[in-house]
Amino acid sequence: MTRLIRPYGDTTGDGMVQLSFTLPVPYGARASAAAVRLAGEMGLEPASVVHSRAMGPDFTFFILYGKARHLIDFDAIEEPAGREYPALSVKQVNLAIRGGLGRRLVVVGACVGTDAHTVGIDAILNVKGFAGEKGLEHYREMRVVNLGAQVPVEELAARARAEGADAVLVSQVVTQRDAHLRNARELAAAFGEPRPLLVVGGPRFDTVTAADLGVDRVFGRGTTPGEVASYLVHALGLPVPGESPEGETGAAPAGSGTAGSGTAGPVTAGSGTEGAHE
């Protein structure tokens, strides 16, 4: 059985698509002709430029509208793998940590390299959280140290060891020249073994797995604090009291997690914040 589909614009199956891109050529009629030809090579035919604007003397930005020639068989698309661990409530996470570790779980997070975009790491760590869920600072049995933005990988590794981190969370929004992938691999190399759980996340990690980067878990766009907290409990092998709540679902980013071991060390002074709620 096959179900052939193409994009929907005005009517079913018309294949109409809008896309935008920038070409490294001066603004003008010749540039627009080049944009239309490129759209044709991309499978949009006919295509037309509906907007163009000079981006400095040597670049032009385009918005085009065109008809996709290609069809895909939707029935041949496999359902992505689901989350392999249960979604836990804040109370379940706290009880699992208290019963399994007998101490607070230490999480150190940062944006590494030149990345100054803290929206991702703050959404997971800050008490205000994201998508209606409280961040990890809200969890009574977690101690969260948020180092902020533009943290060198070596500095993050040193601080994580000093804090005795059980898990290190890194958010990467900047992806130019695959900086996010390079930073993730440098993170894995900086820790060696034994090491805490290494978790990376951001909107452009969907083409790689944790094994590709040498980390324990990769989270993608839309990840919530509860998903991360539930994963930490799962990856550390902590016993979960009671059943997982019904109806809780979330994104299932690529990668698989394995338990890591935190390295003990003295706590150093810094700007870490601690959760104090159940």
CATH architecture term of the largest domain: 3-Layer(aba) Sandwich
Helix content class: 25-40%
Number of strands: 11
Q: Could you name the CATH topology of the largest domain?
A: Rossmann fold
Domain B12-binding: 104-243
GO molecular function, one term: protein dimerization activity
Region (Disordered): 240-278
Protein name: Lysine 2,3-aminomutase
Q: What report would you give on this structure?
A:
The protein has 278 residues and is an alpha/beta fold. It folds into 2 domains: 4-76, D-lysine 5,6-aminomutase beta subunit KamE, N-terminal domain (Defensin A-like, 2-Layer Sandwich); 90-267, Cobalamin-binding domain (Rossmann fold). Helices cover 25% and strands 21% of the residues. It is built from 7 helices and 11 strands. The chain has helices at 29-41, 90-100, 119-125, 153-163, 179-191, 210-213, 225-235; strands at residues 4-5, 16-23, 44-54, 60-68, 72-73, 105-110, 142-146, 167-171, 197-201, 217-219, 273-274. A 6-stranded mixed beta sheet has the order 10-9-8-6-7-11, with helices on both faces. Strand 9 (197-201), helix 6 and strand 10 (217-219) form a beta-alpha-beta unit. Helix 2 packs parallel to helix 7 (225-235). The protein is elongated and about 70 Å long. Residues 240-278 are annotated as: Disordered. InterPro entries: Cobalamin-bd, Cobalamin-bd_sf, KamE_N, KamE_N_sf. One of its GO terms (molecular function) is cobalamin binding. It comes from Bailinhaonella thermotolerans. Residues 241-256 have a biased composition (Low complexity).
